[in-house]
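Entry: DNA polymerase IV
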Amino acid sequence: MFRKTLASRAACCYTRPSTVATARKIIHIDMDAFYASVEQRDAPELRGRPVAVGGNRARGVVAAASYEARVFGVRSAMPSVVAARRCPALVFVPPRFDVYRAVSRQIHAIFTDYADAIEPLSLDEAYLDVSEDRRALGSASAIAAEIRARIKADTGLTASAGVSYNKFIAKLASDQNKPDGLCVIPPAQGAAFVATLPVKRFHGIGPVTAEKMARLGIHTGADLRDRPIEFLRAHFGSHADYLHGAARGVDDRPVRAERQTKSVGAERTFDTNLTDPAEIDAALETVAAAAWTRVERADVRGRTATLKLRRADFTTLTRARSVTGVIETQDQLLDLGRGLLAPLLPTPGGIRLLGLTLSGILRDEELKQPALPL
């Protein structure tokens, strides 16, 4: 069903499985440092240099970092001042989301030649169900190799791909040989592959959950697999069934061509509780910048801003406000967040966490329709 494909950095050497022929064949395509790579492609003087898209040395957050910057520990969603401290030679460039969207459309047009079921996750990544070999290439890995070659030829950019029998493992695999890599995980090897990985790499396990798992002695997929479902339900509630299956390489979710984004946002937990009004406002500004980066990456707009605040005693408050039209800019989201935050201050003991989320997401056709006057 799958065969090993010779491609750059294709280092996952798993044996050919003897499994049922009805298993899905899923590809996860993930562009390599997408925003930063576009900037390096279009500005030759940036090639080989550490580049951060978004923010500046004094404020904002990093939307994307080139691989040269990642060597220094610079990551997306990192405050720009921290990034500049880690990498003094870091070059900051403003984002050009119109260009990224145009390149994304080129890439997604390529996908349509190989699959009907395409589930975009953002401008730079997507799942494809290639169970039907529409171009008679012989295997899912051969399809992934051809897609990557066409992306390189058409855009000058590299993409990494994970090929497997479900979405969960395909996404893990796409990150295995980055950048410019291909990794194939057949069904017979899925559970063993998952067992070797740190749980913090699992899609659906964020930093807070990973920290909780570490306290419970769960560090790898094997550790998670060895915990009974009753233990997982006691500690992780409704998330337990997903975790139980994932640790065994099981994921029955189909590729959904009409995947509807419901909300996009960001939140930050602080090392020390914030009490100073200026520090709180600066933190909210950083959270708004991180949230808006994700909004742009998802290429959506919405009507509702929701603020999340966690006090020192772990009490969590949420407040929301909707607008008549649509929230169009980062500044508008930030202003709404400030308005929601103000009545909650001062907060006894300080603020442990702040979050901002955009919801009430509108579809393209809804955005194009003018508001009907009364």
